[in-house]
């Protein structure tokens, strides 16, 4: 193949820094190359919100345990397997976000997990209490 004769692509002048300890700053890459990057504080807060929501949804996706039924339909098993896969996918996305070692991302992930677990526990406790009250 002949060369097109166009200019060669320009390499970025900034080197990517891989932090090995926790650090505070807004120039972080979360999940996608160049995002949120060096844009604005709003992009950084949107990245924190994304990590928070991913961490919030992780415990909620696993809120119902699979019933111990020997006669389960294959479609029901497939749905439980898909929900389990979604939960693990969300969890690994949170883990990949935390690997940036950014303190803000870490705190957003922890807050999402804590609030998600609290909401799940409250819902399960409330549901359990109302079902026992109606049986008595």
TrEMBL record:
Chain segments annotated as coiled-coil in the UniProt record: none
Subcellular location: Membrane
Main subcellular localisation: membrane
Ion transport listed as a keyword: yes
Keyword annotations from UniProtKB, A to Z: Copper, Copper transport, Ion transport, Membrane, Transmembrane, Transmembrane helix, Transport
Transmembrane segment boundaries: 42-68, 89-120
InterPro entries noted in UniProt: Cop_transporter
Family of the protein in this entry: Belongs to the copper transporter (Ctr) (TC 1.A.56) family. SLC31A subfamily.
Name of the molecule in the record: Copper transporter
Protein species of origin: Vitis vinifera
Source organism phylogeny: Eukaryota, Viridiplantae, Streptophyta, Embryophyta, Tracheophyta
């Amino acid at each position: 193949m002949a060369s097109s004769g166009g200019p060669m692509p320009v390499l970025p002048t900034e080197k990517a820094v891989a932090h090995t300890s926790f650090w505070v700053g807004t120039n972080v890459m979360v999940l996608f190359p160049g995002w949120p990057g060096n844009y604005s504080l709003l992009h950084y807060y949107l990245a924190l919100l994304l990590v928070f929501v991913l961490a919030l949804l992780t415990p909620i996706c696993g809120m119902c345990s699979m019933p111990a039924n020997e006669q389960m339909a294959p479609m029901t098993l497939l749905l439980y397997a898909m929900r389990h896969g979604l939960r693990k996918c969300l969890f690994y996305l949170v883990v990949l976000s935390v690997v940036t070692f950014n303190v803000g991302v870490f705190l957003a992930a922890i807050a999402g997990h804590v609030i998600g677990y609290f909401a799940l526990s409250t819902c399960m406790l409330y549901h359990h209490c109302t079902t026992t009250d109606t049986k008595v």
